[in-house]
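tl;dr need the bound structure. longer version: we got a ligand (zinc ion) that a collaborator sent over and nobodys looked at where it sits. i said id run it. heres the input, straight from their email, havent touched it
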Amino acid sequence: MSVDVSASDRLAEPRPCGRCSNTALLRLAEFCPDCIAQIGTNPDRTEYDAWRAENHRRVVEGEA
Ligand SMILES: [Zn+2]
Protein backbone atom coordinates (compact mmCIF):
# COMPACT_ATOMS: atom_id res chain seq x y z
CA MET A 1 0.00 0.00 0.00
CA SER A 2 1.46 3.33 -1.03
CA VAL A 3 1.08 6.52 0.98
CA ASP A 4 0.46 9.82 -0.77
CA VAL A 5 2.58 12.17 1.35
CA SER A 6 1.36 15.38 -0.29
CA ALA A 7 -2.26 14.47 0.43
CA SER A 8 -1.47 13.77 4.10
CA ASP A 9 0.33 17.10 4.40
CA ARG A 10 -2.63 18.93 2.94
CA LEU A 11 -4.98 17.22 5.38
CA ALA A 12 -2.78 18.16 8.34
CA GLU A 13 -2.91 21.86 7.50
CA PRO A 14 -4.98 23.88 9.99
CA ARG A 15 -7.93 25.30 8.06
CA PRO A 16 -11.00 27.26 9.14
CA CYS A 17 -14.15 25.24 9.72
CA GLY A 18 -16.86 25.88 7.13
CA ARG A 19 -19.49 26.26 9.85
CA CYS A 20 -17.97 27.99 12.92
CA SER A 21 -14.77 29.36 11.28
CA ASN A 22 -12.62 27.99 14.09
CA THR A 23 -9.30 26.74 12.80
CA ALA A 24 -9.15 22.98 13.03
CA LEU A 25 -6.45 20.50 12.07
CA LEU A 26 -9.00 17.81 11.40
CA ARG A 27 -12.06 18.54 9.34
CA LEU A 28 -14.56 16.28 7.59
CA ALA A 29 -16.37 17.79 4.63
CA GLU A 30 -15.27 21.27 5.83
CA PHE A 31 -16.63 20.87 9.38
CA CYS A 32 -14.53 20.64 12.54
CA PRO A 33 -15.18 17.82 15.05
CA ASP A 34 -17.00 20.24 17.41
CA CYS A 35 -19.52 21.17 14.73
CA ILE A 36 -19.98 17.56 13.68
CA ALA A 37 -20.71 16.67 17.31
CA GLN A 38 -23.16 19.59 17.56
CA ILE A 39 -25.11 18.80 14.42
CA GLY A 40 -24.91 15.08 15.25
CA THR A 41 -26.72 15.64 18.56
CA ASN A 42 -29.18 18.22 17.21
CA PRO A 43 -32.79 16.90 17.16
CA ASP A 44 -33.15 18.72 13.83
CA ARG A 45 -31.40 16.34 11.42
CA THR A 46 -31.43 18.74 8.44
CA GLU A 47 -27.88 20.02 8.85
CA TYR A 48 -26.48 16.63 9.82
CA ASP A 49 -28.09 14.91 6.84
CA ALA A 50 -26.72 17.59 4.50
CA TRP A 51 -23.26 17.19 5.99
CA ARG A 52 -23.44 13.41 5.72
CA ALA A 53 -24.50 13.64 2.07
CA GLU A 54 -21.59 16.01 1.34
CA ASN A 55 -19.15 13.78 3.19
CA HIS A 56 -20.41 10.74 1.27
CA ARG A 57 -20.12 12.58 -2.05
CA ARG A 58 -16.48 13.46 -1.27
CA VAL A 59 -15.64 9.88 -0.36
CA VAL A 60 -17.24 8.58 -3.53
CA GLU A 61 -15.47 11.17 -5.69
CA GLY A 62 -12.14 10.73 -3.89
CA GLU A 63 -11.95 14.30 -2.59
CA ALA A 64 -10.38 15.01 0.80
ZN1 LIG B 1 -16.74 24.11 13.37
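gonna send this back to them w/ a short note. Residues 29 and 55 are 5 Å apart (CA to CA).
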